[in-house]
Amino acid sequence: MTAVTQHDRAGIRRAAPLGTFATLTTVTILAIASVAPAAAQTAPDYQRAVNAAYEKYKNLNEGKNADYIPALAKVNPNLFGIVLVTPEGQVYSAGDVTSEVSIQSVSKVFTMARVMQDSGNAAVSNNTGVDATGQVFNSIIAIEQHKGHEMNPLVNAGAITTTSMIGGGTADAVWSNIMNTLDEFAGRQLTVNQEVYKSEAATNQRNQAIGALMYAYGHISGDWRQAVDLYTRQCSVNVNAKDLATMAATLANGGLNPITGHQVVGSQHVPGILAVMATAGLYDNSGQWLYMTGLPAKSGVGGGIIAVSPGKFGIAVISPPLGDVSNSVRAQRAIAAISDALGGNPYKAKS
Ligand code: DON
Predict the structure, then answer these.
(1) Whose CA is nearest to atom 12 of ligand 1?
(2) Angle, nearest 10°, between helix axes 286-293 and 329-342?
(3) Which of 93, 134, 146, 236 is the most buried (most CB within 10 A)?
């Protein structure tokens, strides 16, 4: 396994520029035109809603850090940061917005986006499928049930498979494409948390079994061990709440990063990405979450959750303690409260 240092990473970047992925200028114009008009809320409304949720939940003590990846148990459980970014690039925040946690499963959204961008939406739906499994995120029974189909890209089986579908060939080239994609969504150069990567790589036998099964059923066609390793690295990338909110806001803005002005993914792919987030982003709690908020979202066991109100805002909360379905407790509560205050539910008719 190749350890990825910041220095390695920068070298890869110079060798492999973004190419067409970040320079879809025609699509940019279309995307801007297709985004809904700015919300009626004013800046104080947004900041007030963010502050209110922070105050309401800052002392909430429910949940527990993930510990099946040993390094995650050591993360400060009191870390709590909220950031909301609008399609106009305005940023509203409260709490700790600079401390980093590992992105974990939130990364799956962006690897899926990259595969859709490079190979088309059908490449994903034909290979992994896009339906919810109704099982835990690392279920092996779910793979067996459908011979590896009906594994959407947001559960481990689908995500390891979409990672295997990223172009490049060699591990370094594929990794460079994954990292560039995450950077473009976040609007800055991210780094790998080596401690988390090593900790997960040493304990990810279950994901290796999942990778081997997806290979056995013909969904992964190359080296499944490489796919599992790159997937593990992608989950170990450090992000803060502002990074995650910018990633979410890029999806809220038709694939155009509102901070950098780069079109990161073609706007034609965004509805499909949001649909998978809506059906499977919070795993077996996705239906309940959608029922309450209407927001496509994605959680990670590092404690981050992103949610998207299309045309209105992207929001992220980091708080490591998780509930029984492996979703951050405070992040769910805070996002639901803020979205409610700002009329973020896209299913609600405007009053
Ligand atoms: O593969 C794993 O188990 C982790 N790297 C990611 C799982 C995860 O984040 C599930 N999300 N709530």
Answers:
(1) 300
(2) 30
(3) 236
More confident position, 44 or 13: 44
Q: How many CA atoms lie less than 13 Å away from 35 in the CB half-sphere?
A: 28
314 strand-pairing partners: 85, 308
Burial class (CB in 10 A: 0-12, 13-18, 19+), 143: buried
Phi then psi for 339, rounded to 5 degrees?
-65, -40
Which spans in the chain are helix H? 6-15, 25-34, 43-57, 107-119, 121-127, 141-145, 156-164, 171-186, 194-201, 205-216, 224-235, 241-252, 270-280, 286-293, 329-342
- Which of 106, 83, 151, 56 lies closest to 281, judged by CA? 106
Work out the pLDDT band at 23, boundaries 50, 70, 90: very low
As a whole number, mean pLDDT of residues 278-306 equals: 96
CA dihedral 75, 60, 293, 138 (to 10 degrees): 40
Sequence-ordered list of residues with C-beta below 8 angstroms from that of 173, at least 6 positions apart, any chain? 16, 167
In the chain the first and final C-alpha atoms are separated, in Å, by 56
Closest ligand 1 atom to residue 232 Cα is 5
Ligand 1 pocket, residues with Cβ under 6 angstroms:
104-105, 137-138, 156, 200, 207, 235, 299-301, 326-327
CA distances from 162 to 112, 140, 195 (A): 6, 17, 24
Ligand 1: atom nearest CA of 156 is 1
Quick one: average pLDDT of 129-151?
92
Give the predicted TM-score (pTM) of the model.
0.89
Burial of 273 (0-12, 13-18, 19+ CB in 10 A): buried
Q: What does the pLDDT look like over 174-198, one tens digit per residue?
A: 999 999 999 999 999 999 999 999 9
